[in-house]
Amino acid sequence: MTAMRWTAEDSVTAGTVERAPVRRLGSLARALTANLAAIGGDEQARLMGLAVIIGAAAGGVTVVFYHVIDWIQAATLGGSLHTLLPAVVLYPLFVALGLTACRSLVRWGTGSSPGETIPDVMYRIAVKGGFIKAFPVAMKVLAAAVVIGTGGSVGVEGPAVVSGAAVGSRIGRWLKASPNRLRTLVGCGAAAGISAAFNAPITGVVFGIEKILGTTGSMALGPFVVASILAATVGRWAFGNHPVLALPAVYTVSSPWEMLLYLVLGVLTGVVSVLYARGVWKAHDWFGLLRRKWVQVALGTLIVGGLDLVFRTDLLGRGHEALNLTIVAERTGWFLLALTAAKLIATATTFGAGGVGGVFTPALYIGATLGGAFGVGARALFPGAHLAPGALALVGMAGLVAGATHAPLTAIMMVFEMTWDYGLILPLMLTAVLAYVVARGLHHEDIYSEWLVRRGVVLSHGADAAVLARVTVAECMRRRPEVIREAASLAQLVEATKSSRQTDFPVVDADNHLVGMLSLDAIREAKASGEGDQQLEGLVVAADLAAPVSGAVTTEDSLLTALRRFGQRDVDYLAVVAPDDRRRLEGIVGRHDVVAAYERALTAEEGGRGGVTGAAGRGARARSKEETRGDAEA
Fold first, then answer.
1. What is the CATH code for 258-464?
2. What are the residues whose beta carbons fall under 8 Å from the beta carbon of 289, sequence distance 6 or more?
3. N or C: which end of the chain has fewer CB within 10 A?
């Protein structure tokens, strides 16, 4: 299908060329919101209407994704039963083909972009205003289906979440939504993806609030709920209305002392969740040391293919259904521990060798086998207690997810909705929260935020933090502050600062390089100490009183970073230096400058509050050239 001919108007808008069907869909979506407004719908009603579309679309994409996984596994691993070649050849061969195809799809479809993941969605909501390209996401979703279908160890929820978020972003950009509204629509899509992936609409809402958007309010909560309900409805229509995990028995807490076992399990899953999260990124680093791509694929094939051969369907699962609690009842404790280690190693290796996918499902599997092994051991130690290993396996799932993702509420609700069983809600809550506390104490970053930190991005959730993270210091700093020479005497300092409105002053040397920051309080204390002592007043110079420059910010730092520095140093002004040379002074930024910039950014983003299609203001319209090109490509 060819692109439409350029017009003068197209060139003015930086070349946002879209294909004819895409334009028609955009017109249809805008007509829908216009009709909602015409019949008296307010902003909340329009967001709800769009949430219906996003939820249904995200659910449909997840259903297609699941069918593709099942078809690929049936054609490869399932078809291997009818071939003459032995499994020892076919299993590693399929893993190799899957990893190779995945890497090719990623390289061709995304330009080897590190994004199109759940952490990338978090980043783009907080910093990029919810802009997500559709085509690279589609390529990575297809790549994940190939990896899972050929025996790779990754999860299904990551692609489901990202594809739902991309649907929300695409619809929001069709409507020219303000960044504030676009983030809500992207969050709707992400919540719908989790909802459809696990038949868990409440979990979708909680995950969207806890990890994706980081906050909610009257405007966001309703659309999240609607989108999750629609996505779950589509999933139930396609796969039936039943729990994702069928419990082999009804589990309850028969004695209060059993809670001690769940307390120990919380600590255990917290420790292993850190091993899992750190293991994934360590494997990524180790494989990165291998310069040749074919060596990475070969090593990944050897490890993952070998583990698939040893454990077969116990490790692989069946299509998109990768977990079955009946294995806990049928296996010994040592075998379950071996499965725990095998899944952890296989998952880390798959990601390290270039595979793409989610981390939730492997975490559920590791938690189930670890909890099951712990339950088998506890039953052997206390034979009269009639413990059910399946119950501890179920709770172990929540503990591992909570520890790995630092999202205990999501973990609790996910396991509850996957089983439809309320009997273990108390141990679920205890183990998940304790695992989260232990994991966070051992390693501050979770498996998602680690990806962001490695890219130099630190996010703090919340609406205020999200706005502050999107504005740089360069946008509000003072470029011509009053400065003081390092050799200035105390008397000169008093005279120079007498009539100034600044309370902190950059101190520079003869080459105008930043030496430190000098506060009025430091000058007053020095003056009071040397009152009447002419010799002391002559000896003290500005360089002696200046604080070190360790608290400076760069022009590229966000206002969120600047605000943290203010809190750490308890000053009114910070020095602003160049990113490539921290001795070169660029200006200063004050607390009130940050507040004023925040209010301007908030006003600009709230400019579209009157409607989803309303003008968003200058800040909402600003886009990089890369994003504008991506709009046309997507």
1. 1.10.3080.10
2. none
3. N
What contacts 24+ positions apart, CB below 8 Å, involve 523-528? 523/490, 523/493, 523/494, 523/497, 526/490, 526/493, 527/490, 527/494
DSSP 8-state code for residue 483: -
φ/ψ region of 357 (left if φ > 0, alpha if ψ in -120 to 50, else beta) reads left
Q: What is the DSSP letter of 482?
A: -
Q: Name the β-bridge partners of 518.
A: 505
Q: Which of 379-388, 456-465, 561-570 has the lowest mean pLDDT?
A: 456-465
Cα-atom radius of gyration of the chain, to the nearest Å?
28
Question: Are 168 and 131 spatial neighbours (Cβ–Cβ below 8 Å)?
Answer: no
Q: What is the CATH number of domain 13-243?
A: 1.10.3080.10
pTM for the full predicted model: 0.71
The answer to whether residues 375 and 392 touch, using CB atoms and an 8 Å cutoff, is yes
Phi then psi dihedrals of residue 249, to 5 deg: -155, 170
For the structural domain made of 472-592, what CATH number should be given? 3.10.580.10
Instruction: Delimit the domains of the chain by residue range.
Output: 13-243, 258-464, 472-592
Tokens of residue 363, six digits: 């975490």
Encode pLDDT of 530-546 as tens digits.
654 555 555 778 888 88
d(C-alpha 218, C-alpha 409), whole Å: 20
Rounded to 5 degrees, what angle do the CA atoms 389, 391, 395 make? 115
Cα angle vertex 55, ends 606, 222, to 5°? 50
Residue among 186, 189, 56 nearest 131 (CA): 186
